[in-house]
Every structure is written in structure tokens, then in C-alpha cells.
Design a protein that fits this description.
2 copies of one chain form a homodimer. Chain A is of the alpha+beta class. The first copy, chain A, folds into 3 domains: 9-205, Aldehyde ferredoxin oxidoreductase, N-terminal domain (Aldehyde Ferredoxin Oxidoreductase,  A, domain 1, 4-Layer Sandwich); 245-423, Aldehyde Ferredoxin Oxidoreductase Protein, subunit A, domain 2 (Orthogonal Bundle); 435-561 and 581-621, Aldehyde Ferredoxin Oxidoreductase Protein, subunit A, domain 3. In chain A, the strands form 4 sheets. Chain A has a 6-stranded mixed sheet, with helices on both faces.
Chain lengths: 624, 624
């Protein structure tokens, strides 16, 4: 038993046998991995052997919150959802906020591990340690908002919090996400994993409390944290009013807002159509995750045409890219509508939008024709086609069946020269950064254990000049190996593991991130953490995840970038002429592997490094 | 203070001044009017003088529940919403169930009277006697489901219950309704009244309890009631599994399911497409109003095409008519989608569908052309056009602006011969009964104080042969005046006033209705009611409502039927050849007025009748 933060309990649910049991969370696991993505990857490595089918019953779906969730520390009601990704076959981790994560803690659990496969559509009802397996017949086929409401009604409790899949997850679309409220554990097809288990939803309600180990230290650490947040020139003054989409204008200004399937970055920057000024004409107010004083989620209501009256919580920056720049759609109301539709269908907005943009380029190039699209005019900028295609993808109908599993799978089926237009890494579609103009971010995309993932090691030094403007040259490949390691380890250790909102790292705590986390860990859990130890947790998690991927067969050659980003320079704008040459990538990788203590040829962690991190069992598993 | 049932308090809210006050509910009002529609009409008559603009600040919007709501008597969480109707200029009463009505009681009120007009979009937050006027900026423009969720989030209380309007109400569409959860206080444009007051929503939460006067009597009365319900051959065995849409097959079988704007009743009966067998392929389960053991609301999920995955609580029978038979749309999934869209836009499904069917007939007859419709192909059976038109009506865009206020207003604007295709009475569109084949029901439509309203005096004897099969000849005009008076008075007294679910009257209590209500009233309130006194309450309310309408200028000539129903016999089917001739109508009206003690020339209650009912003040107001 710990003194604070953790509930110290894991709930293990087996859908095949309809059994559940509680297990103690080992103290060493807490010390080594903190929580969240750390726990998820630890259990995934230990329990999901190499080579299992991600959509088979042997894959596991792991929900893990962090030690601060349920305390009064702000911005901590988050969780990591972890499984072997059907989209990448690598570690799949998606972080999400809202209210479900804290409810999991209040219900008594740090971690929920879902195993097996239910015989018929099922949802779980977890209330303060009691688990029920309930028929999901009533909500199967239902969109996510309705699903949540109907389950609340069925349980006669409006305070239940629910994570669920939409039709996309039911149909095993590899772009499917998991939705709680209108928030998405978005990427890597984790919704398909849930669907493959016949698990429509998890409903949860708890009345527990989360203790704090040292009240005095807690007050100090919490106050310091709040002070850092308050002192940020961006967090409250701008971010709380505009949210992530404020990045649209900035990314366009520095020439890294990707447009038209990364073919027109810098040439085409629809700031006047979907930038902050346009966004504010649609903002009606903000929504908050549990315990968050910032409230970055900007509720928008569409105002025109067939989209009039459609509300979205968002779209976030990424979605203004994926349903906007990437597809050439300039109609802000269509983007709002597509965002909401994707949430309702349970589709990841990034991967879905990138896949649609990919299909649009193929259509414009004549590689896909009306024959394949069933007459759908998939030209860039066709907003109605975009919304139609979203639906078709979720239901695997018509051309949607071809695209439902993302760009990599689609390119394989389409053949011809389509692969060179498939903008993905390890199967995961690129998010909203044309990393030709931000090279550490590019290296991060190439090396992140989840694939092209902005959330694994966001290079805020390059994108925003934080904490020191112009300290890092975003066009240079120099020193980016070391920077990327730092970004990945620190972000993992201070956001993904303790499940703290990543925006705080980027905008408020930055260089103090590890010390801040160490202070909070000491105060909340009573475990003795230094800033260095926190950072080591980040390194440990990244090495363990890399070990998982190595066991799946991933190696150095998978740490690459889409061909377009290495061959075609950005044509116009503030990043004009930039690209990441194969030579630059090679150099950055060499530096990165060296910094990481990984083998330069294979990109696999060396036994020595693993042992140093307490991961000799990984070395054993990999037969190093 | 009463011993039970009533909270004995009225909450009066003035939006102009942002003030609220509590008033005692007079004992005599309770005795004379029981509750619900009784209270609504009483306050409307007393407080809204003749001739006020229904969409002006002098109209009032009155929410009133009944004395059983909040007790354990089943099927009593209902309320009447009352105002002067902008659609008819007559009394506007709509009954609705769900959870809001009981929450109003728990918050401490039998009645909520809304006065004036807020300067800016506002919602009310009423919690256990405290009233807040809050900005509705965030939810203005929002559809009804999102609006309710966002308000719950803003109030940080998921147990709040909310009644709100959608875009249709905001845009003063006279077909707008008021929605709580997915239930509608549907007809007579009460949503426009709410919109005219700049009132987007009323959020309510209460923790009070409702006392019962005599526990022994209560147990007996409640058990008797439950027994009547249990003994019904229809209520649990069928109605709880199929709900109101089970009437589709029956209405087709007896030839009174109206189709294609009442032009093809009997000729065209799409039972195989939208009848019970087809419905069951879409049913996923049922929803319940608070405290209801029946759960008639059948949740449906659409399965095909662009409608796939859309859920509706319903559609009810009326909506299978209005978006199905009336428009010739046979696609059950389109009907499900239209039902949900109407709920989200806050449009009454009956009036909206009838208006669309009206426009379709005009289009097919060339009275409306592509010029007026903006190219929308308004042919019968065009489901996509139907859904498009719903949106246009809610936003008053294009052809929608012409149709947004219903058939009567549209016919006036269109001119030509359009009025003869406008199927309304007193401005209210006809519901799902072609009363050419059910003459008491037709007389009820002609005389109901709200216009063509199946809910004011449903002729279940004609439609279902309840309680005695074949006792009443539905094709005959004989004796229908007396029957209609009985139906109207009993339904008012046993359903609308005590706010009990009307389906119980039709299917379970029938002939015992007034005794059942008297027993429950005695037990719950301690007031001494006989069956006769209950029925007299119904008569009193109908006379008071008639008095209100007379003050507005309504007279005998308004008690009429659409020309088509009096001129064109039903062409095919089990009611072939039937129509209600002008002579039949005249005879039925004469009998009805005579039974009612109303003047045969004017159709106005005589002073003698009013005095006998304790309504001499109505006679005074009408200068009789």
C-alpha cells in the first residue's frame, strides 16, 4: 500500500470467461514507470507476446491513469490507452482527458486490463470495485454520444462516465478511436482493438478518494505548479480562449502547416478561412477536463449551409489540418461538421483526414477514378465528399472499404505509384506538422515508438521557440538526436506517465518539467523522486517500448519518413526549400541512437543500456 | 398547505426584469383544476388578456405538472406546457413526459410561469427554490441534445434536467417544439413562444420529496391502478415492446392511415415498409419516462445508406405517419433520421411532416415549382428532400421560410388553390388519423380547443373498439356529440390535468378512468373527489379553454374540418367511400354543443353552464 496517489489496484477483466479480478499494483512498477503510458507499456510488454494478432483475443487493451488523477492537481484527469496497434503492429498508446480517467481512479483502479473477446456485444459496468458484463445489444451500431446517453439511462445514473467505440470500431476500421464524452483516445486504431473484443463501452462510477502522502509538500508543489501555469504568457491569456487551433496561424506563418497531402505546404495556407480570426466567429465557449482551470477545448457551432447548427468540441489544431489543410477544404463549418461526425463514428480525425487527403491526391492524379470512388468526386476542397467518405470508411462501404485501414494498407491494395503519396510512418499517418521545416520534430516522428506521433516528443523548441526563442535552428539537422531524446524522455516522464496534460509542458513548465514532476511525485505518492529519476523513467519507458517493437520485428529501416518529405523540398513560404534528406536523416538517427545507447545498425537498445535501466528482461526477451 | 401531492407552490419568473417569486397555489385552483393542463389554462385565462401577440412579451409560458408526479404512482412524470399558440392563436397545450416534470416537483413547484422577454439569450437554472438567469450565449444556435449536455457540463451537474428549444424555436418557427431529453412538448409552436422570450432552456434540479396524504388509501389505489395496467391485454404484452407505432398496421387495416397529404388514404398503405415487422428490424430497446414500468418508447437505429447509425427514440406512430405515409417516404431509415433531426432542430414532427406533405402535393400539382423550391424536387417519396426541407424550415431558409409557420400560413402566402390542400384545423396540422373513417375522432379534431389534436379527446372506442369491440360505429355520425364530450372531458380530467400518461386511458383504465383518478386523488392529496367530480374537472377545463378561445374571437365556424375531408370520400381500403359531409358535421356539432350546454349559433358556452362549473368570471369576461 502506498501513502498517496495510487489506488494500488489493477482490475483485470477477461471478456472470454466473463471474469474479473483485482491485483495489487507492484511498488516497483510504480517506481519504475510512474503510471499512464508507463504502466500500459509495461503490462503490454510483459503480457502480450511477440507476433499476436492485434485484432485477436490475445491482444490486450489497457487503460491506465496516473498518480495525480483524482487529487486537486490541475490537468491530471487523463489516461493512457495501450494495446498492440492494428494500424502499426507496434506499441499503440493514446492519451485522453475528460472525466473518465478520474472516475477510474475513484472506482478504485490505477489500471484496467481488458483481455480476451466477448462472445456477443458487451459493455462493462464498473462501480466501486463491482464489475458487470452487460449486453450491448441496445447500443451496438450506435454513435458515440447516443451510446453514452443510452447507457447512462439504462444504468439509471447520469453520473456514470463512459468510454466507447462508434461504428468504426465495431467494423474494425483501423483508424477507429475510443471516445469518452467528446474526447478521443484517437490514434493507432485502439477503437478497432476494442471492437475486436466485442466491447462497445466501459461505464464507470466511483466514490473513492485519492489520498496525498505529504500535505505540506503537496501544498507547496501544487502552488509552484499553479504559479508556473499562471506565469505562462500563453496558457491563460491565449490558450484558454483559442485552444490548440491557435497554432494554425503560427504554423502557416513558419511554413510548416501541411496542405493537400503535404504537396502544397507553404504554397497554400488558408489562414483567412480557418485561422484564429475565422475560428473565433464560430467559438461559443470552452469545455474543461475534470479539474482543469484552463479549458482549452473550444466549443464551436457551424453557421452555414447544411452544416448549420452542428456543434463540435474542437476541432483541435490537428483537425483543422486533417479536415482542412490536408484536404484543401476551406469551409470552416464543414471542418466542424467533419470533426463531430468523426467523433460520432469513432474515427481518429488525424488519420481519417490524412487518408482522405491521400485519396484526393490519387483521384486528382487519376490513380483513383470515378470507378473506384463510385462517382464520388474526390477533388481537394470537396467538403461534401469528405464527409461522405468519413461515413463510408466507418462502415467499410464502397471506396470506404479501401480506405478504412489508413494510407499504408490502402496504398498496398491500390498499388501503382500510390505508396509515394501515403504520408505515414510505420503505418501511422502524419499529424499537422510538415517536418521538412522542423527537423527534430521530423526525427521524433521517425523514431517515436508509436509511429508518426506528435505526442511522443513534441519539439516545442523548434515549433514555438520555447523556452528560448531562436535557440534551436529548426532547419538544421545538427544536435537533433540529443534534443529528440530529451523531448521524448521528458514528455514521456512528465506527461504520458503521470498523465498530465501535455500542453502544460509545452506552454508552462518546459525546462522545469522534470523537477515539477519530481516535486509532485514526492508530495502525492511519498516516493522519493529527483528530477533525474523522473527523466530516467521517461528513458526507461522509451526503451521498453522500443523493446516491444523490436520483438515485433521493427528495426532501423522503419525509422524513416515518407518519401515526399525526403525528396521534395517545400516549394513556398517560410520553410521554402527545406526537406529532410536521406543523409540528414541518417546523421540524425546516428546521433539519436548513440545518445540512446542503441545499436547503430539495428536501432535496438543494447543490453548494457537496458540493464542500466533495470530492463535486463527486455534484453533477455530480445536474446541480445 | 396540502397534505400530499402538491408542492403548493408556483414559481413566477419574469425575464424582462430578471425577477422571480414564489406564490402559494390556491387550494380552490387545485380542487377545480387538479393540475397540468388544468392549471396551465386557468393561469393563461386569468393572466393573458385577449388579443395579445403570441410571440410578444405579454404571452406567458406555463409549465405545470400534476399531483401524482413525484410519488410512486407509475406513468405520472408528465407536464403540460401552456401558452397562447402562435400557430392557432388559441389555447396551446402540449403534454410531455420524461424526467423534467418530476424534477420540477422535486425542485419545489407545481407550476412555473414564465413572463416577459429576456434582453439577450438566457437560460434559467432552478435548483431547489433558487433561480439564476444565465447567459445562453454558449448554447444559442445549438441543437437540443448538445444544448442539454453543454448546460449540464456548465452547471457541473449531470443530474440536471433540461427543457430547451432548438434552432427552430430560436427562429420563431411556428412549428417549433420544446424538448427535454429526446421528448417533445410538440405541437402548437410552443417552442417559438419560448424563443420569442429569448429563453433557450430551463435547467432544473430538486431534492424535495412529495408527500402522500393517506398511506393506506394510497397503497390500495396504487395497487388497483397497477392491477388495471397488468390486466390490459395490450399494455405490457404489446405496447411495451412495440410502442405507439404498432398502430401503423391497425390504422392501415381499418383504412384510416392518412397518406400523401390525405389524398391517398386506403389506396396506399406502406405496411410492409414501415409497419410493425419492419419496425422491429430497427428496434434496439426501449426507454422509459421516470417511474414508468411500461417503457413504450422504442429506440431505433437506422441501418442503411446515409442514415446508417442514426438513432431515434421513436419515431412514434404519429411520426411514422407524418414523415412516412403523409410524405410517401417508405424508407424506414429516412423516417428514423427525420424524427431525430426534427428533435434536434426542435420541430414538431407532426406539423412539420404534414407541412412537407402539403408542399409535396403542391409541387406535384405544379402550384409550387422548382423556382419556389430552389430546385428541391419535392415529389412524394423523396426522403432526401424531406430531410433537407426540415433543416430549411428550422432556419427559415429558401423554401423553408415559406413553410416554417405551417400549412395555413403557407397557403395564405402561396394563394392560388393551395388552401384546399392545407390539412389543418384552426391552423394546427392534422395528426395521423384520417377521420373520414372515424367520425367522433373527426368531431373531436373539429372541436378540440387546441385545433386538430388527437390528444384532446381520443376516440379509442372508434379506433380500437375499446372497451367494447364494435359498440361504436365509426362510420356513423349518430351519438358522436355525446361521445366526444365524454372523451374530451374524461381525457382532460384523467390525463391532461393529473398529467397521467394518456396511453393508460386508452389501453388500461378506459371506463374506470374517472374512478381511478378519484381514488388516486383522495389518496395522494387528501382532497375529496368522486368519479363525477373528476369528470366535472374535465368539463370545467374544456369550458375554460373554450372561453379563452371565444375571447380570441373563435366561434362555431372555426369548428370545422379541412375541405378535403368533407368533399372527397376515401377512395380505397376498409374505409372506402367514407367522408364527413358538411351536413354530418353540422349534426354532430349541434349534438355536441347541446351536450355541452353551448350556444348552437356561436359555439360559445352559455352563462348558465359556466356558472354551474364555477366559471362565472368567464361569462363576465365574454360579456355573456
Amino acid at each position: 500500500m502506498y501513502k498517496g496517489g495510487y489506488t494500488s489496484k489493477i482490475l483485470r477483466v477477461n471478456l472470454t470467461n466473463k471474469t474479473s479480478k483485482e491485483e495489487a499494483l507492484p511498488l516497483q512498477t510504480a517506481k519504475d514507470f510512474i503510471g499512464g503510458a508507463g504502466f500500459g507499456i509495461k503490462f503490454l510488454f510483459d503480457e502480450v507476446r511477440g507476433g499476436v494478432d492485434p485484432l485477436g483475443p490475445d491482444n490486450k487493451l489497457i487503460f491506465a491513469s496516473g498518480p495525480f488523477s483524482g487529487t486537486t492537481i490541475p490537468c491530471a484527469s487523463r489516461m493512457a490507452v495501450t494495446a498492440k496497434s492494428p494500424l502499426t503492429n507496434a506499441v499503440g498508446v493514446a492519451l485522453v482527458g475528460g472525466y473518465f480517467p478520474v472516475e477510474l481512479k475513484y472506482a478504485g483502479y490505477d489500471v484496467l486490463i481488458i483481455e480476451g473477446k466477448a462472445e456477443t456485444p458487451t459493455y462493462l459496468w464498473i462501480k466501486d470495485g463491482k464489475v458487470q458484463f452487460r449486453s450491448a445489444k441496445k447500443v451496438w451500431g450506435m454513435k458515440t454520444t447516443d451510446c453514452q446517453q443510452i447507457i447512462k439511462n439504462e444504468l439509471n445514473d447520469q453520473n456514470v462516465r463512459i468510454a466507447c467505440i462508434g461504428p468504426a470500431g465495431e467494423n474494425l476500421c483501423k483508424l477507429a478511436c475510443i471516445i469518452n464524452e467528446l474526447r478521443a483516445a484517437g490514434r493507432k486504431g485502439l477503437g478497432a482493438v476494442m471492437g475486436s473484443k466485442n466491447l462497445k463501452a466501459i461505464a464507470i462510477r466511483g466514490s473513492g478518494e485519492i489520498a496525498v502522502a505529504d500535505r505540506d509538500k503537496y501544498k507547496t508543489a501544487r502552488d509552484n505548479f499553479a504559479k508556473l501555469m499562471k506565469e505562462s504568457p500563453v496558457l491563460y491569456p491565449q490558450f484558454s480562449k483559442i485552444g490548440t487551433p491557435m497554432v494554425v496561424d503560427h504554423a502557416c506563418a513558419i511554413g510548416i502547416f501541411p496542405t493537400k497531402n503535404f504537396s502544397a505546404t507553404g504554397e497554400y495556407a488558408p489562414v483567412d478561412k480557418i485561422g484564429v480570426e475565422a475560428q473565433l466567429t464560430r467559438n461559443v465557449g470552452s469545455e474543461h477536463c475534470y479539474g482543469c482551470p484552463v479549458g482549452c477545448s473550444q466549443v464551436k457551432v457551424a453557421k452555414t449551409g447544411v452544416y448549420e447548427g452542428i456543434m463540435a468540441e474542437g476541432p483541435e489544431y490537428e483537425t483543422f489540418f486533417s479536415f482542412g489543410g490536408q484536404t484543401g477544404v476551406e469551409n470552416i463549418d464543414a471542418i466542424i461538421a467533419a470533426d463531430r461526425l468523426a467523433d460520432e463514428l469513432g474515427l481518429d480525425t488525424i488519420s481519417a483526414g490524412v487518408t482522405i487527403g491521400f485519396a484526393m491526391e490519387l483521384y486528382e492524379k487519376g490513380i483513383l477514378t470515378d470507378k473506384e470512388t463510385g462517382g464520388l468526386k474526390l477533388n481537394f476542397g470537396n467538403d461534401e465528399a469528405m464527409l461522405t467518405l468519413l461515413r463510408l470508411m466507418a462502415y467499410r462501404e464502397g471506396i470506404g472499404a479501401l480506405l478504412a485501414d489508413g494510407t499504408k494498407a490502402a496504398a498496398k491494395k491500390i498499388g501503382k505509384s500510390s505508396e509515394k503519396y501515403a504520408i505515414h510512418i510505420k503505418g501511422l499517418e502524419l499529424p499537422a506538422y510538415d517536418v521538412r521545416g522542423a527537423k527534430a520534430h521530423g526525427l521524433n516522428f521517425a523514431t517515436a515508438y508509436t509511429g508518426a506521433d506528435h505526442n511522443r516528443g513534441y519539439a516545442f523548441q523548434e515549433i514555438f521557440g520555447i523556452p528560448i526563442p531562436n535557440e534551436v535552428d529548426r532547419f538544421s539537422a545538427e544536435g537533433k538526436g540529443k534534443l529528440t531524446k530529451w523531448n521524448q524522455d521528458v514528455r514521456t516522464a512528465t506527461c504520458d506517465a503521470p498523465t498530465m496534460c501535455a500542453f502544460l509542458l509545452d506552454m508552462a513548465v518546459a525546462a522545469q518539467a522534470t523537477q515539477n514532476t519530481a516535486d509532485l511525485m514526492q508530495a502525492v505518492t511519498g516516493l522519493n523522486f529527483s528530477a533525474e529519476q523522473v527523466q530516467t523513467v521517461g528513458e526507461r519507458i522509451n526503451n521498453l517500448a522500443r523493446g516491444f517493437n523490436a520483438r515485433e520485428g521493427f528495426c532501423r529501416s522503419d525509422d524513416t519518413l515518407p518519401e515526399r518529405l525526403m525528396m521534395e523540398p517545400i516549394k513556398e513560404g517560410a520553410s521554402k526549400g527545406q526537406f529532410i534528406s536521406k543523409d540528414d536523416l541518417r546523421k540524425m538517427l546516428d546521433e539519436y541512437y548513440t545518445e540512446r545507447g542503441w545499436d547503430l545498425d539495428t536501432g535496438t537498445p543494447k543490453r548494457e543500456k537496458l540493464t542500466q535501466l533495470g530492463l535486463s528482461y527486455v534484453a533477455d526477451a530480445l536474446k541480445l
